[in-house]
Each structure stands twice: as structure tokens, then as C-alpha cells.
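A common beginner's mistake is to predict each chain separately and then try to dock the pieces by hand. The better habit, illustrated here, is to supply every component at once so that their relative placement is modeled jointly.
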Amino acid sequence: MSGSAAITGYGAVSPLGVGAETLYERWCDGVSGLDGGLGKCDDFDATVAMSKKEVRRTDRFVQLAVVAYEEAVATAWPDGCPYDLDRVAVITGSAMGSMEILEKQHDILEKFGKQSVSPLTIPVMMANAAPAMICIRNGYTGECSSIMSACASGAQAIGHGLNLIRRGDADAVVVGGAESALTELTQAAFGMAGAMSESGISRPFDRRRDGFVLAEGAGILILEKPELAEQRGATVLGELKGYASTTDAHHITAPAEDGIASSRAVALALEDAGIEPEDVDYVNAHGTSTQLNDRSETLALKQALGKAVEGLPVSSTKSVIGHSLGAAGAVEAVATLESLRRRTAGPTVGLEDPDDGLDLNYLPDGPAPLSKRRQNGSANGSEPLTAISNSFAFGGHNATLVLSA
Amino acid sequence: VEAGTAGKVTPDVVIKRVIEALVELGPEPEQVHENATFEELDIDSLDMVEIAQILAQDFGIKMEPEDFEGVVTVGDAFGVIRGYVV
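With all components supplied together, the output reads:
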């Protein structure tokens, strides 16, 4: 199974604001969306897109997904869905679902008994509420599913969507990820697991890095079968060319330090896209700012890309938006697409003192122009650029997307 | 209705609270009247459980989901609820 999917729309909500352009431009300006050790989407207002009843019956992660979807679909299908509704699938990722309602209703159970527990608890909590809500609001009746594989959820959802297009199971797939799990319990739990930053600073690849900064957000992309997008005269913003996922089979939280399984995800994704390491023009790293990830990811990129990694621009969007868990892969796919389309990659903000052995071109000094690294003799500066976007997760899940624009 | 609160809990008080609850659940105030159907108001079985919980919490009225079986309009529901407030 091979071939690409046309990307005809995308949207994002992040701690930098609402909208894909806002995310990209503030990232390039070096603005941080992190405050007090958290990445909250303070500018977000669900009521711009959802009714009072919908807001009441959904967790914030679903609301973030709906608003990101509305941005994506306004670009892709401004006149309405051009496909039979039963040929449209929706696949999104979320690592946690709603922690907030679970905690609140547990308190109610303890204090007032089971008769007082909200009947909305499960439908609000479940991770699949995000794709289900997008289907309910729009009448899409193809496959609707959610992927819950921690910080790889968003990337795996996007990859699953690509394979639905390739298999002919859908003409279009709404893909992405959404997360809002900023409760004190979530913070305490990640903190005790040793993954979250005590300093509250996200500085991937820096010697002083001390963990990720917990954030919320959503990213949604509209994928279409390329032939059908062309037939309808769609404006294609980019292509999803390849995807692969592997597993460390090593430890439930720590990445395998040898980077072998994660490098295999990168290599298999390139193979899936039918490209060579020399064809990669930019890497949007998982780059969490944890000691273990940034080292094993660097090693994985060196193993998978060989000599092609020398000088290759690599940056971490998490340096400004923190880590939105199951949304991260999707938000970062959007950031990657914007970087390719504008031919300038956003930087790794706050990286001042790269750690020993972390010696890639992490773009610490600001946004960097991107250009076709492999010249095929017909270079005129307008050829599509290609990037990979990595997502690695608790559980040992490794996912890599290959995007071009 | 529990002793001690019975003096204050009249059917009108309970109905007023039900109307407030319906508006909290989604419909606009002007939509909520006796002839409005729950289908029109987009009030479903999950909402009815919440209304029953509010009545239990605020007035000690214990209702079961089956009590609302066959109820179509807001007026029908008021009739059922009045039966609990005597």
C-alpha cells in the first residue's frame, strides 16, 4: 500500500493562540505560550463554534478539536463537504480523554453517592468523544475512531487516516489530535513519573532541560484521495506522503536509549513515502525537553538519516507550546506544513547550551530558511519541500509522518 | 417531600426550578413552554436524568427515569412532577 493523501485544510489551537497561522508566526517570533509551567490555550473560546448544549456536554479537549476542525474545513470545503458523507471518516488521537470530569465525578460519588453521579460522565470523558462530535455535527458516517497511545496518538491517527485513503476505505478523512488534561492530578502524576519539568521551562536539547511542560491544544487536517481532490479542482496545501510506527518493547515510560526502534520508525516512514534520507529538508522533532527523549531522538535521527542529517534543520515546536500529549503530533504536523509552505522553519526557542552529543542543527538562533537539499538538476526553488515529524510516547510508541509542500 | 421542607415546596416552586434546569441544559428561555416537545428542545434521556438529580438535590424528590416514559411535552413532564409534590 503506497501513495499519498492530499491535504486540503488544516487548523490548530495551541497555547500560542487560535489558528495555524498564529501558531506558526508566534513560534517564528520566538514567543512562548507557556506560563507558570503550563501551556494553556487562554485565547480559546468554544462558543464561537458550538452551541450552549454542545459545550455543556463536552470536555475542553473535544471543544479544542471542534474549533481546529472548523478552521481546517473552512479552507478545505468552504461550500460544504464535496463527498458522500458515508465516504468521510474521522480519526483523532487523545492520550487522556477528560481527566476533569472523572476527578469531579469521583468526588461527587464519594460525597453524595452514586445517585448524584452525572449521566454525562462517560460521554464527556471518553477519548472518542472528539471524533464522534465531529461526525455528529457534520453527518459523516464513515469510520469514526480514536487512537489512545499517549504522545503518539495524534501522529498515529494521521497515519491511520493515510492508510484509509490508500485502501480506498474513504474518499476523505478528518485526522488529528486533541488534548486538555491540565488538572492537578495529571500534573502530579506526570511529575511523580519524573517526566515533567520542575523549572517550568521547555528547552529541548539544552543541557539544563529538566522535562516537558504540560500543555493543551488540538490540530486537525483534512486528507483527501489525491485523484478526487484534483478532479474537484481543490487547492492542495500539501501532501501526506508516508507514515510508519514501531514500538520499543522496552519500558512503559522511558524511551529505549539506543534509539533503534525510533530510528526504524523514521526509516520505515521514508521507505513508505518512497524517498531517501537526502530528500528530507526539515525535521520537526518530538523534542520534549526530557533528558531521555532528546538524546534518544538525536541518536535515532543519526541512525536513520546517516550523513544526510549533517546540517539538516531540526527544531522542536514544543519549545514554545509545550507538550500537548495526544494532540502534539497533530499540532506539530500543522506547524511542519506551515514551515514547508512558507519555506522557513520555526526555531528551537530557549536552546542556549546544547548538551554533550546533541549536535544537530536545532535552529537555536531563530527561524531558518528551508531549501531543497538534494538538487535534481531542475531546481528552480519552487519544488515541494519534504519534512518528517516525529512523535514518541509513553508505552514505547514511535510514529513518524512524512509531509511535503 | 421530606418533612420540614414540605411547607415551602409547592408545585409552582418545583416547576419553576424545572424550567430553570431546562434552560441550563440548552434551550433558550422563550422556547420552554408547556406545549414544547422535548424533541424540539433537544432534551434527551441523559437530560432527564439530570433534571431528576436536580429535583432530588433541591427538594428531596426521588424520581426514576421510568417516571418520564411516555412524556412528550414539557406540560406532560410538569404533570408527572406535580404528582410528586402533594
